[in-house]
Amino acid sequence: MLRLRIEQEFARIGLNIQKPFLPLRTTLPKIELNIKKPELRLNNHLPRVYIDQRRCFADMEKRTLDDFIRYYAERGREQVLKAIGDIAEEGDMLARIEEGVRLEDVAEKGWGEMADFNVTAIPKQPPDITWEVKPVEVEFIPGEVELELVRGRVENLFTPGKVEVYLEQKNYIKIDWVGENLDIKV
């Protein structure tokens, strides 16, 4: 009997696989701010108060030099005129001595008036008060904000995948006759 022995092997392929790789390099976005602060400038003038106490001091017989000179010059003038009048009146009285004017009357006239004492509060006149008020000067300098955006970036360093196919084992078929060999010649 004739027998065949068949040996076979399938072809085998090998795969070299390199997976794709997608690394991402990112740069974050930034906001840079340049800030100039606002300013508020205030110029405040203090109020001025003027108090004129000349009339108050004049009530207490205390005057400025100019007022003192004027006041006492006028008072002296009045006293001089009164004294001249009194002397003239005494002279007139002495001239009428024959008419019955007595010397006691003339002497009594020179004694002056009886002093009159009173209690009063001084000063009688209030001080003159004036003031000067200036408004507050306000200067406002607005602030500024400068904004600069540095955009973020995403860089991809993509490495594509590869598949290399190679023949790892060749296929083959081997057929052998097993058994008696037939050798026939014709």
UniProtKB/TrEMBL annotation:
Domain of life, per lineage: Bacteria
Database matches in InterPro entries: DUF6470 (IPR045527)
Protein name from the UniProt record: Uncharacterized protein
